[in-house]
Design goal:
By secondary structure, this protein is of the alpha+beta class. It has five helices and twelve strands. It folds into two domains: about 180 residues, BirA Bifunctional Protein, domain 2 (2-Layer Sandwich), CATH 3.30.930.10; about 45 residues, SH3 type barrels, CATH 2.30.30. Keywords: Biotin, Ligase.
Length: about 240
């Protein structure tokens, strides 16, 4: 367990290899794990992303899951996590090159329009029980359509544990911001770096329907709002493409 230089209330458990950090975190949550229990693994055998897709999980990239027992709704938790990742990436990427970091609704982080990170949140029930915040970040390896930290900072030398400790400081501060001020501040921070905001987009939803329009904003529940010539649409979950 690694608990030095992290905010109070967080407990880090480091593994060499796991089937999935989210699965391990769910097991621990069901056994009564404390809020702030953090699982990090050097490698995953069967990591998953959105829609159950396999998450490419080679050794060296960042795989982490956090148990949250506070009753925080899905949207605030999703956006808090994305902003904390972006703030941490800003600390470690090569600022001379000034990479463009943006949030792709609902749960991806892009660098120069290529995916570097994704998050996946499991909730026991919609309104009660624990949540698991799963995070994957390309540190040294990425598919051809994505990017990694080493692509933007060839001199990057931090361990994943060191990166995690930087991330937790931002994550904790943003959680406290939300608990004190509500979702509005988090929403404003996210919108400042929203990918394709005010531009035409297409969204494919769970049921394979495709909607087109101008990405107008996100509402107080985290739904994306798009406008076209005939209507204003509110969409709770889907994928921009």
């Amino acid at each position: 367990m690694h608990n030095n230089n992290i905010p109070d209330g967080y407990y880090i458990y480091h593994y060499d290899i796991l089937y999935s950090t989210n699965e391990e975190a769910i097991i621990l949550a069901e056994r009564g794990a404390h809020d702030g229990t953090v699982i990090i693994s050097d490698e995953q055998i069967a990591g998953t992303g959105k829609y159950g897709r396999k998450w490419h999980s080679p050794k060296g990239n960042f795989y982490c899951s956090i148990v949250i027992t506070q009753n925080i709704e899905l949207a605030p938790l999703q956006f808090i996590t994305s902003i904390a990742i972006e703030k941490t990436l800003n600390q470690v990427l090569n600022q001379k090159i000034c990479p463009d970091i943006s949030y792709k609704w609902p749960n991806d982080i892009l660098v120069n329009k290529k995916k570097i990170s994704g998050t996946l949140i499991h909730k026991k029930t919609p309104s009660t029980g624990w949540s698991i915040v799963g995070i994957g970040i390309n540190m040294y390896n990425s598919p051809s359509y994505a990017t990694s930290i080493i692509d933007h900072n060839p001199n990057y030398r931090l361990s994943n544990l060191q990166f995690l400790k930087l991330f937790l400081k931002h994550f904790h501060a943003l959680r406290q911001n939300f608990l004190k001020n509500g979702f509005q501040n988090i929403r404003k921070l996210w919108l400042k770096k929203a990918y394709l905001l005010d531009l035409p987009i297409q969204i494919k939803t769970y049921d394979q329907k495709i909607y087109s329009g101008i990405f107008s904003t996100i509402d107080k529940e985290g739904n994306i709002i798009i406008k076209n010539d005939s209507e204003t649409l509110k969409i709770g979950y889907g994928e921009i493409f």
